[in-house]
Amino acid sequence: MMNYHVLTLFPEMIEQGLHTSILGRAMETGALTLETVNIRDYADNRHHKVDDYPYGGGAGMVMQAEPVYRACLSVQERIGQRTGRRARVIYVTPQGSVFCQKTARELAREEDLIFLCGHYEGIDERVLEEVVTDYVSVGDYVLTGGELAAMVMIDAVSRLVPGVLNNEESAQFESFEDGLLEYPQYSRPKNWRGKQVPPVLLSGDHLRVEAWRREQSLLRTRKRRPDLYEAYERERNTQEKPGTSGKRKIGAVVFEWSACAGGTDSGEGEPKAAPYLEEILKLSGELGLWRGLAGDCPAGGKDGFLQILDKKGLFERILKEDTGERELGGNFYKQLLEEVHLPGKKVLAFVSSPEGIQKAREAGMRVVWLSPQGGPLEKSQICFRQIADFLEGMALLRNL
Ligand code: ADE
Fold first, then answer.
1. What is the pLDDT of residues 173-219, one digit of tens each?
2. Which of 26, 77, 207, 356 lies at a CB distance of 3.0 to 4.6 Å from 31, suitable for a disulfide?
3. Distance 69 CA to ligand 1 centre (A)
4. pTM of the full predicted structure?
C-alpha cells in the first residue's frame, strides 16, 4: 500500500494523469491512494499569489517559501497522526539525482511519499532546506514544471507496490531489473509480412528459450546502452565466485563450422550438430556467454546451421562476411575477437580441423578439440575421444 501526496499548483493535471489505466484501478482497489494539495490554497493573500521576483534580479519568478512550507506541514501533520512518522519529501527538479529503477525500488518500500512540484524558476531555497529529503530529476532536460516528472516517478514506483499489478502484468524479467534491457517479444502471427518469429521461441524447449532471451538482453544492452552494459560487466567481474579469483575467465565460446557439424560436414544439405553441441550451447547460454561461429560455413548449409544455433545468438558480422567459399577465411578468429572486444584468452574455441586449431591458437584463444569422425583415430576410439573432449570443454566452461 502506498499513499502519495502531491504538492502542486496544478492538481487537476496530476488527478487526470494518474486516475486512468492500471494506477486508476489500483486506486479503486485501495493499493494506492492519491492526495493532491494545491499550494495556492496556502497563500496568505487575497489573490492566492504564490510567486515573486527573484532577489538579485534575473528572469522569471520564484515560488515563495511560506505557502510551500505550510502546504507541506499540513500534509506531514496528517501523516504523522496516522503513522507517527514523517514522510520523505521528494522535490522533483532537474537539479536532482537522476531517477532510475533502483530509486523506484527504494521508494516503493515507503508507506507515504510527498512529491513537491515546482514551477517558474524554482522554489525559494530556504524552504527546500527545511522540508526536502530527496532531490530527484527524470533526466537531463528541462520541463515546464515538476508535474510530469512526478507522474513519471509515481508510475514507475507504483508498479512495484504489491497489489498494483496483477500476475500477468508483473513480468518476472523486465528491463533494468538486473541492469540489462529486456529481450525482444513476439506474438501471433508466426509470419508477419514475411518476417518470421525466431524459431527457438517455437521450440517448446524452456532452457533454450531462456538462454536465447538472456543472450538477446545482453546483445541489445551492448548495442543500445553500452553504458549499462559496461556497468553490468564490471559488476559481474568483481563478483566473488567460490573457487576463483572472482574474475570471469571466459566471455565467449566459438565454434568452428565443421565442429558444429560433428566433423562430417559435407557442405551439402543440413548439417547435423555434433552430439554434444546442444549441451555446450545450453550451458554457455545459461552462463550468459557470447557464442559465435568462426571458420568456413558453406553457403548451402547456413540455414540449417542457423536453425541449430539460432541466428540471432551468433556474431552476425562473422556470418555476413562469410563468402560461402570452402577456404578458411584466415582472419575469422581475430575478427571475432575484435567484434566482441575480448582478448583471446577469454574465448573458448570448439574446433575440429587442424587449420581451425592453428587459427584459433594464433588468435590466442583457448582451444577444445572436438574430434572429427574419421581422421587419425580408429573408428572404435572416436566415441570415447569425443566424450573426453566434450567433458573437457564442459569442465572448462563450468569452472569459469
Ligand atoms: N522539472 C523541470 N524539469 C525537470 C526534470 N528534468 N526532472 C524533474 N523535474 C523537473
1. 577 777 889 999 999 999 999 999 999 999 988 878 887 888 888 88
2. 26
3. 20
4. 0.63
